[in-house]
């Protein structure tokens, strides 16, 4: 057997093993595996701890894509990389609330009738819906007749993940349309100023200035305001389940919004007293949501809400854990360093800082092995790419999202270590959550 064929056989073995592992997880939790067409949710869909499943899917997706890319003609793969219009179709679905409409038609609705409801020409509508159904989002139950499925239900107006999807098909798509222009522009090209992010470059043409956060606060539509709520809403994967929270007494959720991290923490670890730090307008919403969704924590004085500008103020001092979920990646290095230095000033002798973000991995196996042995970072089995390839693509696409919206970035492990060192923090451990990571730091 040639070495190239042996690699492909190894990938096939990895795919089979990972798929069997995922099937076993679904059967263990719910008695059965999901169906492609079903609208029934599975217990794992809403589980707080899905790290094991995500880890398995990361391997499965990476191996499948690497196998297909190896065997397909390069021209085939190259065209498939760019000829993708899912985002444009999903934008229509969200704008017209098609998922909501289809709830009234569990057996499906013909595009002629759906077209009348949303005032879109039915033949064009059928073509758009078929693109998504081919991807597994919606089901074509009969010719030109479409129904919801488990995936399309994510796009319902009340599903929190839908708002994150909206952010990408609206703001990110707008910024991506001028991505090349910003790289070549004399002012924006070399700049890391958040006001020079690609989306704001596009907005400048419409007379909108400032940063993406300024735009969200002041100028965007109700739709985008909903997205901000959605990106801070609780949904699976927001916690670090493996972290020993039973041994912790106090947690500070820095920039915590409504408490996407700390709400599930309060429900599962009643030993922890939580402080949520954010700007005043965010805390108004947070208090209402906690009163409705976790009133026992409020009544038992297990949560407090304190205003904080993390650029200019130090968090409450001397607590056990300072948790920053999706905070540092929003900012270029200078601003990120300000945040970390203020957090560092709050630390007591035994305090820990947990930075929950995506971590970019290089494609050098030699470097990956060094990070695995010295820092505890995960590494994919050979012959998979050491960073899991497309199985870990979310991190790299998220890096592009941070660039387009904020002129910021996701960081490599080494980037994070160096940034933290400048704030007098030292990396203790990497907690791999499969999609993202939690980096645990202590005072240096």
Automatic annotation (TrEMBL):
It comes from the Eukaryota. PANTHER family: O-METHYLTRANSFERASE CICE, PUTATIVE (AFU_ORTHOLOGUE AFUA_4G14580)-RELATED. GO terms for biological process: methylation. Keywords: Methyltransferase, S-adenosyl-L-methionine, Transferase. The lineage of its organism: Eukaryota, Fungi, Dikarya, Basidiomycota, Agaricomycotina. Coiled coil: none annotated. Residues 243-367 form the O-methyltransferase C-terminal domain. GO terms for molecular function: O-methyltransferase activity. This is S-adenosyl-L-methionine-dependent methyltransferase.
């Amino acid at each position: 057997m040639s070495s190239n064929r042996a690699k492909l056989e190894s990938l096939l073995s990895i795919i089979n093993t990972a798929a069997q592992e995922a099937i076993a997880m679904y059967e263990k939790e719910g008695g059965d595996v999901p169906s492609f067409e079903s609208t029934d949710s599975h217990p794992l869909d809403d589980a707080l701890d899905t790290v094991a499943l995500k880890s398995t899917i990361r391997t499965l997706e990476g191996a499948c894509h690497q196998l297909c890319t190896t065997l397909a003609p390069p021209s085939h793969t190259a065209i498939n990389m760019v000829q993708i219009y899912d985002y444009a179709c999903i934008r229509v679905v969200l704008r017209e609330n098609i998922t909501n409409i289809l709830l009234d038609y569990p057996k499906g609705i013909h595009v002629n009738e759906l077209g009348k409801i949303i005032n879109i020409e039915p033949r064009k509508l059928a073509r758009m819906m078929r693109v998504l159904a081919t991807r597994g989002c919606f089901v074509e139950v009969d010719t030109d007749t479409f129904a919801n499925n488990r995936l399309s239900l994510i796009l319902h107006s009340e599903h929190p993940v839908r708002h994150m999807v909206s952010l990408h098909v609206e703001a990110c798509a707008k910024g991506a349309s001028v991505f090349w222009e910003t790289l070549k522009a004399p002012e924006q090209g070399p700049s890391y100023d958040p006001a020079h992010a690609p989306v704001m470059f596009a907005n400048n043409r419409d007379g909108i200035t400032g940063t993406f956060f300024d735009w969200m606060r002041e100028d965007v539509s109700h739709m985008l305001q909903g997205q901000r709520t959605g990106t801070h809403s609780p949904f699976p994967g927001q916690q670090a389940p493996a972290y020993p929270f039973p041994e912790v007494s106090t947690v500070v959720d820095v920039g915590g919004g409504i408490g996407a991290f700390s709400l599930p923490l309060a429900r599962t670890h009643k030993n922890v007293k939580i402080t949520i730090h954010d700007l005043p307008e965010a805390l108004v919403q947070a208090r209402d949501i906690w009163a409705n969704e976790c009133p026992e924590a409020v009544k038992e004085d297990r949560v407090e809400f304190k205003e904080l500008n993390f650029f200019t103020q130090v968090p409450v001092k001397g607590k056990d854990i300072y948790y920053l979920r999706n905070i540092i990646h929003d900012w270029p290095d200078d601003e990120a360093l300000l945040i970390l230095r203020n957090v560092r000033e709050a630390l007591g002798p035994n305090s820990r800082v947990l930075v929950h973000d995506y971590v970019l991995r290089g494609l050098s196996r030699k470097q990956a092995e060094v990070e695995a042995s010295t820092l505890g970072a995960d590494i994919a089995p050979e012959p998979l790419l050491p960073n899991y390839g497309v199985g870990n693509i979310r991190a790299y696409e998220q890096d592009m999202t941070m660039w387009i919206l904020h002129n910021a970035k996701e960081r490599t492990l080494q980037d994070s270590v160096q940034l933290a060192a400048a704030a007098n923090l030292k990396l203790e451990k990497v907690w791999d959550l499969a999609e993202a990571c939690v980096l645990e730091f202590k005072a240096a």
